[in-house]
Specification:
Blueprint (H helix, E strand, L loop, with lengths): L1 H36 L11 H32 L4 H16 L6 H24 L6 H22 L4 H20 L1
Helix pairs in contact: 1-2, 1-6, 2-4, 4-5
Length: 183
Amino acid sequence: MATAVILWTARLSMALAIAALACRWVTRSADASLAHNSNSHTSTAVDHPTLSTMLSLQRLMWCGGWLFLMLHFLAVFGLQLHWSHDAAWEHTAEATARIVGRRVGVGVWFNDLLAITWTIDMLWNTLARQQGTTPPLWWTRPFLCYFVFMAFHATIVFGSIWWSPFIITISITSHALRRHLYS
């Protein structure tokens, strides 16, 4: 039971985050296109019903991804590692050794940093949305690069090939939605 909870909280976190990033890609492109094509007598890009729905869906999935990551951390530390950061270090070192042949546990600190930065991103996005802005690119771009880096490495060390069909489906769907919003 504990293993299933640990696996599925991680899978749901990444599935929601990947879907949110796909929505983000679609809405950013569509938002720019609609803003470029609009004039003072037409609706703004944010007023576009499909785009507005996609933005809401993106926010909901991003929040859900964050929530499942926090639940994943609680499950791993509570159910498997008995609240020991030393045990987390050892577990990470063993998993890394199976893949790269070298015992390195420092990845646990990178996991902690991801939890902290994603929490900051969630709070910053919430505050920015209330003020009608977005977080600055100097934060967003490095954070998203770090997020993708961590998702990739966590999948290599702890995950499986399970993600391939999901990522392909999301890629095709987001491309189709992007084309639909452009037309």
